Amino acid sequence: NTMTIGLPVATNYTPELIQYANRALEDIYRPGYRYKKVGILMSELVPSEQIQANFFDRRDRERARKLMQTIDEINLKMGKDTIKFAAEGMEQLWKLRSQYRSPKYTTCWDDLPMVKA
After folding, report:
1. Tell me: the pLDDT tens digits for 48-68?
2. Which pTM was predicted?
3. 3 vs 24: CA distance, rounded Å
4. The Cα angle at residue 48 between residues 9 and 53, in degrees rounded to 5
């Protein structure tokens, strides 16, 4: 099952994104089926400085921005996942299997091939 949701206003506010993801999951969930994982694909990404506002938007975007900035600063200072959202769960019961992942030649210096002459 899949679902596409168009957001009324582009956002990087995690609680809002979790809300939309949960709504989609509730719509596609069918009793009697076993689910392993869910994937989310985001498209039409724009820089936060170029977000087109919506006249009917009632969310306090400035307050949301400050909250996310504060969470990021605390996690940077105190360590990854010092603060995280309950929707992420307390324990990660699965492990990412990445032994066959392609090298990141264009984004990671450590993945560049070394040539010795």
Report:
1. 888 888 888 888 888 999 999
2. 0.69
3. 6
4. 35
